[in-house]
Structure formats: structure tokens, C-alpha cells
């Protein structure tokens, strides 16, 4: 199997043709929700989540049984500029930890019944330093987008994408600033926990990258300022939309990848919800730009897909209540 695009223009066209939610399934799910043994609105956001999920699955009474978590890993040329509290070799070490089952995301995927895949993207060949040139060529970004697209299991009924890549909050900040404006300082945070000097370096690196790469077309922003794992997340999210697989977005870096799609095509993120608002300074601002209200706010800033994986439980609860509860008629309960 190969991806159905070989250039950014083809990928851009594909985004314009993504399907909409199943309106009939939404209407039927709304009708069912109104008949369940509870006061109207008593389950709060769980009700709208279940109806949203039903629309994307095309089933008024869906089940959520096969969630997939994919962690993409990539290395960044700007890491050499001292933008992270950890050295670049930690990316390779953490990939080994994921594959051995020792990371937080492994435990969360297991806890919520998700399969987990790890895809390392040319870790021995970091992207270019985007303060000097574009981070990726068109061939490189297409390769990463395609890797994400092809990593999605067509049998999955929910997708979570996470990332590992030392220094990758810096390209995420650059992407957000390029897409939505503002100053580099407004979008640049402490990431892995850099001190004040490190934060100043990160902010300067983002500023330099924006000057070096002035094109603001969304997919060009991804190519010039992103990374392979960020592009792969975008490819996977797009593939999920194409296959009507709902997506839970993770933290700042995942949301930056998703933002590229949102600005490239109207409605590209209609199949996505925000799993959480992370402790990374600009994540909530980015979610606000995308019109996404987070399900959880627990001070997480780990990445890996961890916050989104934790939110699988919330969505599973919403779907279980919607599809499993009895109606007033079935239970013999008065709905007066």
C-alpha cells in the first residue's frame, strides 16, 4: 500500500475532499440520547461526545473497542542550538523504552485497551536547522506525511497520535507563530524544563526561523519549520479523517501538527477532540485558535500521546453510556 499523494499539491487537494460527519447517524444518536433513562443534559459533555463519535462512525449506537495509539519519533537540527534540557540522543533512548513497554504511554495505552505502535523516522538524520534553511525538502515532508498516513490501522475505531523528539517544542512554537501570528515569545515555552537562559535561546531560535522561512502557506510552514514526527502526526490525523476514524489530540506539539491541517482546509479537524490542556504555556492558546475545548486539565507536559490516551477513558465512558443505557420505554420508567 502507498499513500495517495506524492506532492504537497496532491496532499492539499486530498484535504479539500475529506468527508463530513454522517448527518443521519448524528440525528439518530441525538434522538436516542433524548430517550435514555436520565434527565436531559444530565451527562453533560459526555452526551455531545457520544453523538460526535456516533456521527463519525456512522452508527447511532456505536461501540469503542479498538483504539490505536501511534508514537512518532524524529530528530531536529535546531536541537544543536541548545533549545532543550536534554541531549538529542535521548530520542533514540526513549524509542527503545517505548518498544520495551517502559514509558508512561505504554501503561496508559494498556490501561484503556489501545494497541500501540512506535514509528521512528530517520533518527540518524535530523531535519535541517530551520534558522539556516527549510527544515525539510518537499520529498522529505511528503515521506513523513506518508509514513503517518500508512501507520493508521483501518480497523481502528479511535486514534491517538503522540511524539518523541528532543527539541520539538521549538518547531511547534514556530509553526504556531507562523500560522496565527503574534510574537515568538507568546508561543515559546519551557518544554522539557529549560531555565530562563534556555527559554531566551528558544525564543530567539523561533524568531530566526520565522525570518529565514517567510512562507505562511500552511503546508509550507510544516515543511520549513516542522519535523518528521510532526509531519507524520499530520499525515495520520488526515488519514483518520479520510477513514472516518475519530481522533483525540494530545499536547502542544500534536496540536501544532493538527493546526497545519486546520488552516490548510476548512473542517479538516472536525473529527478531532482535544484530550487535555497541557502545562506548556501556549497549548491552551493554540486550542482556543482551533476552537477545541480540552477534556482534561491535569498539568501534564510529557507528550508521547499521554494526555490524549488518558482521555480515551472519558470517551469510552461517553460511548458506553450512550450505547448501553436503556431507554425509558425499555426500562419501563416514566419520562414525564
Automatic annotation (TrEMBL):
Its EC number is 2.4.2.21. The active site is at residue 304. This is Nicotinate-nucleotide--dimethylbenzimidazole phosphoribosyltransferase. The gene is cobT. Signal peptide: none annotated. Catalyzes the synthesis of alpha-ribazole-5'-phosphate from nicotinate mononucleotide (NAMN) and 5,6-dimethylbenzimidazole (DMB). GO terms for biological process: cobalamin biosynthetic process. It comes from Gemmobacter caeni. Pathway: Nucleoside biosynthesis; alpha-ribazole biosynthesis; alpha-ribazole from 5,6-dimethylbenzimidazole: step 1/2. Pfam families: DBI_PRT. PANTHER family: NICOTINATE-NUCLEOTIDE--DIMETHYLBENZIMIDAZOLE PHOSPHORIBOSYLTRANSFERASE. Keywords: Cobalamin biosynthesis, Glycosyltransferase, Transferase. It is an enzyme of class 2 (transferase). InterPro entries: Nict_dMeBzImd_PRibTrfase, Nict_dMeBzImd_PRibTrfase_bact, Nict_dMeBzImd_PRibTrfase_N, Nict_dMeBzImd_PRibTrfase_sf. Belongs to the CobT family. It catalyses: 5,6-dimethylbenzimidazole + nicotinate beta-D-ribonucleotide = alpha-ribazole 5'-phosphate + nicotinate + H(+). GO terms for molecular function: nicotinate-nucleotide-dimethylbenzimidazole phosphoribosyltransferase activity. CDD domains: DMB-PRT_CobT.
Amino acid at each position: 500500500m502507498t499513500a495517495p499523494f506524492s506532492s504537497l499539491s496532491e496532499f492539499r487537494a486530498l484535504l479539500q475532499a475529506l468527508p463530513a460527519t454522517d448527518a443521519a447517524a448524528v440525528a439518530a444518536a441525538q434522538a436516542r440520547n433524548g430517550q435514555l433513562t436520565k434527565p436531559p443534559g444530565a451527562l453533560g459533555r459526555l452526551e455531545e461526545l457520544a453523538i460526535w463519535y456516533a456521527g463519525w462512525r456512522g452508527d447511532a449506537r456505536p461501540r469503542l473497542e479498538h483504539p490505536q495509539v501511534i508514537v512518532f519519533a524524529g530528530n531536529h537540527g535546531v536541537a544543536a542550538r541548545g533549545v532543550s534540557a536534554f541531549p538529542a540522543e535521548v530520542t533514540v533512548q526513549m524509542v527503545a523504552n517505548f518498544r520495551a513497554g517502559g514509558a508512561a504511554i505504554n501503561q496508559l495505552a494498556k490501561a484503556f485497551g489501545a494497541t500501540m505502535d512506535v514509528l521512528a523516522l530517520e533518527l540518524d538524520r535530523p531535519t535541517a536547522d530551520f534558522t539556516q534553511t527549510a527544515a525539510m525538502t518537499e520529498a522529505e515532508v511528503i515521506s513523513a506525511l506518508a509514513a503517518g498516513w500508512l501507520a493508521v490501522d483501518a480497523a481502528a475505531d479511535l486514534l491517538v497520535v503522540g511524539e518523541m523528539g528532543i527539541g520539538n517544542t521549538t518547531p511547534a512554537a514556530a509553526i504556531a507563530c507562523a500560522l496565527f501570528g503574534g510574537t515568538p515569545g507568546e508561543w515559546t515555552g519551557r518544554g522539557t524544563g529549560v531555565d530562563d537562559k534556555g527559554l531566551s535561546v528558544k525564543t530567539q531560535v523561533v524568531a530566526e526561523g520565522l525570518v529565514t522561512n517567510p512562507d505562511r502557506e500552511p503546508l509550507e510552514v510544516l515543511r520549513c519549520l516542522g519535523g518528521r514526527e510532526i509531519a507524520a502526526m499530520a499525515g495520520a490525523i488526515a488519514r483518520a479523517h479520510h477513514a472516518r476514524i475519530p481522533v483525540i489530540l494530545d499536547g502542544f506539539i500534536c496540536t501544532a501538527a493538527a493546526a497545519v491541517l486546520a488552516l490548510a482546509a476548512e473542517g479538516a479537524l472536525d473529527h478531532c477532540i482535544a484530550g487535555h490542556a497541557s502545562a506548556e504555556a501556549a497549548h491552551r492558546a493554540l486550542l482556543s485558535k482551533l476552537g477545541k475545548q480540552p477534556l482534561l486539565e491535569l498539568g501534564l507536559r510529557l507528550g508521547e500521546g499521554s494526555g490524549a490516551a488518558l482521555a480515551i477513558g472519558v470517551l469510552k465512558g461517553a460511548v458506553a453510556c450512550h450505547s448501553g443505557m436503556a431507554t425509558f420505554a425499555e426500562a419501563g420508567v416514566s419520562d414525564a
